[in-house]
Design brief:
Layout: H1 10-21, H2 27-34, H3 38-57, H4 60-91, H5 99-104, H6 108-129
Helix pairs in contact: 4-6
Length: 130
């Protein structure tokens, strides 16, 4: 490795840690050669060990499955939110009024429209609670 390194990128740190793991150099030698503290180099080694353990523990297919499930859940939530938004837009002022008022009014179409939208919104809310 080059002795005049000014900036320690992840790639350079990795190369040094690999040399130490392979026994090509020691922490003390690297510390003297690159004017770094031994604790800094040991920290890089610890980080590398944690990274290796993590990468060996998780199968990339498992991560993909988790992302796909999360995406599916988000798409379902988005769809439900859009249905509720459309229900609110379609019902207009009846959304916030009590259902008893609409039941007593003789306007059949408006009453049906409001009750259908209210039932749909209620079922959406109920499904989220379970």
């Amino acid at each position: 490795m080059d002795d005049s390194i000014k900036r320690w990128t992840a790639k350079r740190k990795t190369a040094l840690v690999i040399e130490i793991i392979q026994g090509k150099t020691t922490v003390a030698e690297a510390s003297r050669s690159f004017d770094l503290s031994p604790s800094e180099i040991e920290g890089w080694i610890d980080d590398a060990k944690r990274g290796m353990e993590s990468s060996l523990r998780v199968n990339p297919l498992d991560i993909r499955g988790q992302y796909e499930k999360q995406l599916k859940d988000l798409q379902e939530a988005y769809g439900e939110a859009m249905l509720e938004l459309r229900a609110r837009e379609n019902t207009g002022p009846c959304w916030n009024e009590p259902l008893d008022r609409h039941r007593s009014e003789p306007n059949g179409d408006a009453d049906d429209k409001c009750s259908r939208a209210s039932s749909r919104a209620f079922s959406l809310r109920a499904s989220r609670c379970h």
